[in-house]
Design a protein that fits this description.
An eight-stranded mixed sheet has the order 14-13-12-15-16-17-18-19, with helices on both faces. The protein has a six-stranded mixed sheet with strand order 3-4-5-6-8-11, with helices on both faces. It folds into three domains: about 5-275, 2-enoyl-CoA Hydratase, Chain A, domain 1, CATH 3.90.226; about 305-485, Rossmann fold; about 495-710, N-(1-d-carboxylethyl)-l-norvaline Dehydrogenase, domain 2, CATH 1.10.1040. It has about 700 residues and is an alpha/beta fold. The longest helix is centred in the last third of the chain and has 21 residues, at about 615-635. The chain is about 45% helix and about 10% strand. α12 links the parallel β12 and β13. The chain has 28 helices and 19 strands. It starts with 8 loop residues before the first strand and ends in a 10-residue tail after the last helix. It binds (S)-3-Hydroxyhexanoyl-CoA (3H9). (S)-3-Hydroxyhexanoyl-CoA binds near residues 38 and 81. This is 3-hydroxyacyl-CoA dehydrogenase. In the N-terminal section; belongs to the enoyl-CoA hydratase/isomerase family. It is found in: Peroxisome.
């Protein structure tokens, strides 16, 4: 029987709603199924349905026990995140879980796919849990800036102890079904159909006369001071700046000190506090845009082309990284290098990369060997790409070299194959125009190391066919990457914006800030690295080459960091030469500040007639971010990025922007666009060449609007 017949009226819409929770009795067991696609999230109707089902179970003479199931591929993906930030609606999830736990008849949860957050909390409300092979169980709430709020921090340590609970909750991690059973988070492991496995377990319990077994009634776990201290130490260093991870440890500690009801009240207090933080808003924004970024109206109904065989041209760090990413995801890869020696070197890099995956437990040794012998080959002749579905060139960044490669690809590749370039700034439109099939050409800008970094900028010239764009997005998904659509310009979305805030940093250094102070201030904001540490890591020769490339078209009012050129000429190319902005000593972590660099900067100041002034860290952060947002507004206006969320995702996944700030455009909205525009106008009074407010920013302010309004 389905609840639909008795479904309550939905108060908002004044019409009967189809109920996502069904109740039927099979052989003495009430089967309660949650069917709320796509992830059976615990929205209000589901919560109400579960409460009604529990009432019904209590009075149902036909049912001696109950089984809770999730329809589809997973049990429950958690509370309904889209309800967060809105006024709460009864019944609250903690009450629902309590109702399940209070059932006078035993309740079993059968978990397939995933039981996450509130989903696991529902399962912890049940008295017995069967986990299906392949399922993952976890409490990922801290990744959203909150803590488990339906008893997870109180019941988990009661069931598996404080140390094990602390391995899971502040990490926001998941455990596979096998481990869940080992830990005692689930009672048994099963294979096959969750309904059958759950029914069998429930019948067994009824036959054995097993009663209910409420986790909340289990004794308080021991106060494990060592584990609590260790967790606090770890999480004050890792994910620096995030408050929810540390708060979740406090909630677990409460379980050791209080009876369940008081512990749940304390959990609720901390949960509500976290709900009100801007970090929660930022992290949830990040969650939704990471999914929305794949939704492009232009691709509605457009089928991607089939890709199983990949060609990679160039086996340097980037090419080898791309090949590794593809091999790890089951694609067949042919790598083209100019001669045997270069091919061997590339193969060795790929083998090392795969070995790293084995060490991290992402791959087993046997699969690695099989990949290398069956799915990977090198060749010197482009003819080896005749059957490839898609080829990505990752050769030297020079237009003529790229065009030569594309001429070869045009010659050998089959009709319908996709021809991609991994260039990070060259004109993809020009590359496309150089072949006989421009509609098959696209930019796939991976970030280094390509088998690790999540971001893929899909660079789309006007000539590209829609199904080629769809193919790029499908490939990104297959490779586990987050793809962002970008238009063609120097640097596309990310590097173009980077060059602006990088230039803002140089201007501050010329005006009086030290590069070390800039790095410190930027890190205090939450970035993983400052621009000068970053420069040292990437190599100062790269920045030098970019300045040389741009010299011919540079506006004379632009400021060139002559001290950076001087560092380059001194052979101080950064970490790889032991010296750059910092001095790197063997065996020491990080670099040491160097007075010689400050002297070079002083010389540049003297040449420009600048009297150095002091900067506060806050001013450094404001200018850095203002330059970023202002250029991002131009990038949006020009259509290089279609939506502000595309900029946010680019910076979250390619540039280490602090996730809890949601992304730079989200940060700008939260900060307030009028204040930001006011800053830029102030800066323009001293330097109206660099600090021109972007027209889009001005328009949004005049319309009292924000970037979010452009996300669609
Ligand atoms: C919580 O539980 C708090 C409680 O402790 C206390 C409360 C009082 N809600 O990822 P996918 C959407 S906090 C609403 O592509 P997959 C998602 O936006 C929650 N919507 O699928 C997407 O929509 P669209 C703790 C959700 O198969 C669609 O579903 N739980 C939710 O690759 C498909 O998502 C979590 O943090 C949700 N909870 O992966 C788990 N989840 O199609 C968050 C997903 O319109 N979720 N959507 O773009 C996940 O990790 C993955 O979605 C999951 C499925 C592994 C479940």
């Amino acid at each position: 029987m389905n609840y639909a017949a008795e479904a309550p009226l939905d108060e908002r819409e004044e019409r009967p709603v189809t109920h996502p929770v069904s109740y039927e009795v099979e052989d003495g067991i009430a089967v309660i199924t949650i069917d709320n696609p796509p992830v059976n999230a615990l929205g209000r109707a589901v919560r109400q349905g579960l409460c009604d089902a529990m009432d019904r179970l209590a009075d149902d003479p036909q049912a001696q026990a109950a089984l809770i199931l999730g329809a589809g591929k997973l049990f429950i993906g958690g509370a309904d995140i889209s309800e967060f930030g809105k006024p709460p609606k009864d019944p609250w999830l903690p009450e629902v879980v309590q109702r399940i736990e209070d059932s006078p008849k035993p309740v079993v949860a059968a978990i397939q796919g995933a039981a996450l957050g509130g989903g696991l909390e529902v399962a912890l409300g049940a008295h017995y849990r069967v986990a299906m092979k392949g399922a993952k169980l976890g409490l990922p709430e801290v990744n959203l800036g909150i803590i488990p709020g339906a008893g997870g921090t109180q019941r988990t340590p009661r069931l598996i102890g404080v140390a094990a609970a602390l391995d899971i909750i502040p990490a926001g991690g998941t455990v596979p079904a096998e481990q869940a059973v080992e830990l005692g988070l689930a009672d048994r492991l099963a294979e096959g159909d969750p309904r059958e496995a759950g029914l069998a377990y429930a019948r067994e319990l009824v036959t054995a006369g097993a009663g209910t077994r409420p986790v909340g009634q289990m004794p308080c776990p021991d106060h494990d001071t060592v584990a609590l201290e260790a967790a606090r130490k770890t999480w004050s260093k890792k994910n620096r700046g995030e408050v929810a991870r540390l708060a979740s440890i406090d909630a677990v500690e409460a379980a050791t000190r209080m009876p369940i009801a008081a512990g749940i009240t304390e959990e609720r207090r901390i949960f509500s506090e976290m709900m009100d933080t801007p970090q929660r808003a930022g992290l949830i924004h990040a969650f939704f845009i990471e999914r929305k970024v794949f939704q492009l109206p232009e691709l509605d109904g457009v089928a991607p082309r089939e890709v199983s065989q990949l060609g990679v041209i160039g086996g340097g760090t980037m090419g080898a990284g791309i090949a590794t990413a593809a091999l790890l995801r089951g694609l067949d890869v042919t790598l083209i290098e100019r001669d045997d020696a270069a091919a061997e070197k590339a193969a060795a890099t790929i083998s090392r990369n795969l070995e790293g995956a084995v060490k991290r437990g992402k791959l087993d040794g046997g699969t690695r060997d099989a990949i290398l012998s069956d799915a990977f080959r090198t060749a010197a002749d482009y003819g080896a790409l005749a059957r490839a579905d898609l080829a990505i060139e990752a050769v030297f960044e020079d237009m003529d070299v790229k065009k030569q490669v594309f001429a070869e690809l045009d010659r050998v590749m089959k009709p319908g194959a996709v021809l991609a370039t991994n260039t990070s700034y060259l004109d993809v439109t020009e590359i496309a125009a150089s072949v006989s099939r421009p509609s098959d050409v696209i930019g796939l800008h991976f970030f280094s190391p390509a088998h690790v970094m999540k971001l893929l900028e899909v660079v789309v010239p006007e000539s590209t066919a829609p199904d080629v764009i769809a193919t790029a997005f499908a490939l990104a998904k297959r490779l586990g990457k987050t793809a962002v659509r970008a238009g063609v310009c120097d640097g596309f979305i990310g590097n173009r914006i980077l060059s602006k805030y990088r230039a803002a940093a140089d201007r501050m250094v010329l005006a009086g800030a030290s590069p070390y102070q800039v790095d410190r201030a930027v890190k205090a904001f939450g970035w993983p690295m400052g621009p000068y540490e970053m420069g040292d890591l990437a190599g100062l020769d790269i920045g030098y080459a970019t300045r040389q490339r741009r010299a011919a078209t540079r506006d004379p009012r632009d400021i060139v960091p002559t001290w950076a050129d001087a560092l380059y000429h001194l052979g101080r190319h950064g970490q790889k030469t032991g010296r750059g902005y910092y001095i790197y000593e063997e065996g020491k972590r990080g670099g040491a500040e160097d007075p010689e660099v400050l002297e070079l900067i002083d010389k540049a100041r003297a040449e420009h007639g600048v009297t150095p002034r002091d900067f506060t860290d806050e001013e450094i952060q404001r200018r850095y971010m203002a330059a970023l947002v202002n250029e991002a507004a131009r990038v949006l206006e020009e259509g290089i990025a279609r939506r502000p969320l595309d900029v946010d995702v680019t910076f979250l996944h390619g540039y280490g922007f602090p996730r809890w700030r949601g992304g730079p455009m989200f940060w700008a909205d939260e900060t307030g666009l009028p204040a930001l525009l006011g800053d830029i106008e102030d800066y323009a009074r001293e330097d109206d060449f660099f600090w021109q407010p972007a027209p889009l920013l001005k328009r949004l302010v005049s319309e009292n609007s924000n970037f979010a309004s452009l996300n669609g």
